[in-house]
Request: fold
Amino acid sequence: MDEGRTVDGSSLRDLLDRSAVTDQLGRAARLLDGKRWSELASVFAEDVVFDYGDGSGLQHGLPRLRTTFARHLDRCGATQHLLGSIIVTVDGDRATSEAYVQARHAGLGDLASDVFDTNGEYVDTWARREGRWLIVERRVGWLTLSGNPAVLGL
Reply:
């Protein structure tokens, strides 16, 4: 920040909110990589709407999201979801974020030597509920897919 400039209350609130949303994005990636399905409600709203770009279209609800994650990620070994080029825009108790994602999925069992890599973008809509930011809508667009999709049961 330039010397002599001050941050007013609304600017500070915006910075804090953007930081909180960015932290939640990272938390979501780590929950996926840790397969901590029981903790998804700390990042995703119960009434979340999502499209993971897999041809299933728009789906609804945290239980369905949990099932979707488990169906694919429980089939593979280690995963790592890396996020970058994150842009967060806050408008009161709503926010949007755009983040590039690179996700590596290692095979398991007979597929232990295989990997499946996905590169794309998460576009999320957030709502502040009871003092915390939750994803209320996630849309995923995949740009490239490489490797063996059987790693994810595809």
Q: What stands out?
A: DSSP finds two helices and six strands in the chain. Residues 37 and 66 are 6 Å apart (CA to CA). The beta strands are 44-51, 59-60, 79-91, 94-106, 115-129, 132-147.
